[in-house]
Design a protein that fits this description.
The protein is an alpha+beta fold. The strands form three sheets. A five-stranded mixed sheet has the order 3-2-1-5-8, with helices on one face. It has a five-stranded mixed sheet with strand order 4-10-9-6-7. The protein starts with 15 loop residues before the first helix and ends in a 15-residue tail after the last helix. 23% of the residues are buried.
């Protein structure tokens, strides 16, 4: 486990190496440019100082090649850095198609983790080695920030919406999880540990912490307990959209626009049903604001996602917000 202050943590994820390379390249180029500017400044200050009678002070012309050089060379260097960082930005925001989704709820002052199989953790996250992990995250109260320094991943977690990040751990061990956004009195104590395990050990850990119901099964039970099936089921008595297989589909709305039924859309439809009314249906659904916890909302999303076919699930790079 990494403990104490360390000015540099060895990279422990597939994204850490490229991010480190970009960082050191930026430091190197900025250092070279800065040193060059200061050297030129001191040379000119000394050479052309007041009182030096050995300098021809007549106005000089014909410096266009020099001016173009000191303008275009730094421009090309920093433009190259921009293009490099742009490609890296796209990469770190494009989860692989085979990424395993794990849900995180942040609250003052703890991390609550839910695995698809129903396993739950507090201030801890167990993941397998060399397996892409997509974290779908939301906050129960204020803005938090999920930060694993050794993985070089960092993402704000906002109340009222889902954000995501992904990583692939490449080193076994235990790594610190921090909150990188001031979130209140005990912000400094809001931490946790990420444990990277061999796939076989991770499978045994899941089995040892197995729950009677998976996350999707818990959502199915909640879907019925809250009366959702009475309106949205196949044999519903009230005319409402059938939600079976909804996840990932394009939904046409009453205002003429369309939306993809992702996690964000489902969450908003439960809490703010009048925000995006499906075309052909009356806005009669009541709001469940204040009646469901963030964990229960995640269970419902997991259930509806489980009813979708493989062709409806988001492709690599699609947002699950």
């Amino acid at each position: 486990m990494n403990s104490g202050f360390q000015w540099y943590l060895p990279p422990a994820s597939s994204l850490a190496g490229p991010l480190d390379a970009l960082w050191w390249a930026m430091v190197g180029i900025c250092s070279i440019v800065s040193i060059g500017v200061f050297i030129a400044m001191w040379v000119f200050c000394i050479r052309y100082r007041r009182g030096n009678k050995n300098i021809d002070r007549t106005l000089s012309h014909g410096t266009i090649p020099v001016e173009l050089t000191w303008t275009l060379v730094p421009f090309a260097l920093f433009l190259g850095m921009f293009v490099w960082s742009l490609f890296l930005f796209v990469r770190i925001n494009t989860p692989p198609a085979d990424a395993q989704t794990i849900y995180v709820v942040a609250k003052q002052w703890m991390w609550k983790v839910q695995h698809p199989g129903g396993q739950r953790e507090i201030n801890a996250l167990h993941v397998p080695l060399d397996q892409p992990i997509r974290l779908t995250m939301t906050s129960q109260d204020v803005i938090h920030d999920f930060y694993v320094p050794a993985f070089r991943v960092k993402q704000d977690i906002l109340p009222g919406r889902y954000t995501q990040l992904w990583f692939k751990a490449t080193q076994l061990g235990i790594f610190h999880l921090e909150c990188a956004e001031y979130c209140g009195l005990d912000h400094s104590r809001m931490g946790g540990l990420v444990t990277v395990m061999r796939p076989a050990d991770y499978a045994r850990w899941l089995q040892g912490h197995a729950q009677p119901l998976s996350l999707a099964a818990q959502g199915d039970a909640l879907f019925r307990a809250k009366g959702c099936s009475g309106c949205h089921g196949a044999n519903a008595s009230v005319r409402a959209p059938d939600l079976d297989g909804l996840y990932g589909r394009m939904v046409h709305l009453s205002d003429g626009s369309s939306a993809v039924a992702d996690s964000r859309y489902i969450r908003d439809s439960i809490l703010l049903p009048d925000k995006q009314v499906v075309a052909g249906y009356a806005p009669i659904m009541p709001s469940f604001q204040g009646q469901l916890s963030e964990e229960e909302l995640i269970e419902l999303v997991a259930y509806l996602k489980s009813t979708a076919g493989p062709e409806q699930l988001p492709a690599a790079g699609s947002s699950t917000r």
